Amino acid sequence: MISVGICIGAFLLIIIIHWVYNWRNPRCNGKLPPGSMGWPLLGETIQFFAPNTSSDIAPFVKDRMQRYGPIFRTSVVGRPVIVSTDPDLNYFIFQQEGQLFQSWYPDTFTEIFGRQNVGSLHGFMYKYLKNMVLNLFGPESLKKMMPEVEEAAKNKLKRWSGQTSVEMKEATANMIFDLTAKKLISYDSENSSENLRESFVAFIQGLISFPIDIPGTAYHKCLQGRKKAMKMLKTLLEERRAKPRKEQSDFFDYVLEELQRKDTILTEAIALDLMFVLLFASFETTSLAITLATKFLHDHPLALKELTEEHEAIIRRRENPASGLTWKEYKSMKFTFQVINETVRLANIVPAIFRKALRDVNFKGYTIPAGWAIMVCPPAVHLNPAKYQDPLEFNPWRWEGVELNGASRNFMAFGGGMRFCVGTDFTKVQMAVFLHSLVTKYRWETIQGGDTLRTPGLQFPNGYHIRLSEKDEKIQ
């Protein structure tokens, strides 16, 4: 019996060793990029989700870049992943969307954003939804929306100037959420019985967290926040169906019309996931960018001076100085766009963009196996000293004379390829209009938490407090 037990134990040990060996040394019809697959099943998940407390590239990526080079392999939440910090490979991946690669996100992300979310859809369905969104965020719609954006900025700034302090991230998030929710679903936070944004706050706090769905964890709170927000959206959908409007007044009306068409390919699940993603993406990321721009400008007086002069010149050229911004004036803001480009380069609001290889792909001597995930890492490109001199420094003049009509090898703040963010113009309009209203009428100072903003990465930092006053007043 003892000998039989020893044989069984030895056999199990051999199986385990063989399994561990295969885990650490995946099969490949070629040469895999260097790297480590970490522990079986767990991989390097814990290291991947470790918080970044610096303004530099996340330690998980930076340490492995130094050890293995710009392209390396790892394993996260049980999935083999190729991480690319190589601008050429990133550009190649974006250009081969739908041919060699397709959009993909870990199961934890699809659980958070919805299994029918626009990022998980492909081909004709993705193009169909993209065209729907452009109906809201396209240039012609933004031209009509600009007066509302400016009015919202003016009203909020006026209110903030009467307060002893303003926490910029929270304040701008509220401002943009109110505007976006109104355009999307006619939501009015002041007259609604439910606080829709509270659900998104809970959702955001666990967005980049270790994926354990246990009560008390950030990830569990994130899923609960999504559940509550989706329940509110579904209730609203049912109310609209029961009492349809005669004319379109928001994006939800447009979505309802699409759902009611006999030949529609839109489903209720896809429509609700789309509304959820739009509400999240349109305000939370933009508020972070505005907060960082405000801090950068305060910390760099020469940049603030040039930006202020540009916007004051716009007002001086008007026949009526009190008239609102025009689309032509917006398009003339050269230095403003330089400030925006530099802010989003440093902010790295999207720290990772995921794709999946549809078949074996050979690149620079390495093979990316079919079915493997690829993580494009924008911060590693945006903070590369070989591409950007003093990459951690805020320097909007580095963009002087640079025309950006989309993504490039060295700039992918809004993604790239056919999945280039359709809300890019909306973000830029909101940032430019807010900065116009801010620098032409107000001065501000940091009064608390000026060093709490950390980039890069989707961290949504709070703690940056300022005091505002109108320019004909002194800051007390």
TrEMBL record:
Record-given protein name: Cytochrome P450 87A3
InterPro entries, per this entry? Cyt_P450, Cyt_P450_CS, Cyt_P450_E_grp-I, Cyt_P450_sf
State the compartments where it is located: Membrane
- Which example biological process does GO assign this protein? brassinosteroid biosynthetic process
Q: PROSITE patterns this protein is in?
A: CYTOCHROME_P450 (PS00086)
Native organism is Nicotiana sylvestris
| Keywords of this entry | Heme, Iron, Membrane, Metal-binding, Monooxygenase, Oxidoreductase, Transmembrane, Transmembrane helix
Q: One Pfam family this chain carries?
A: p450
Question: Do the record's keywords include Transmembrane helix?
Answer: yes
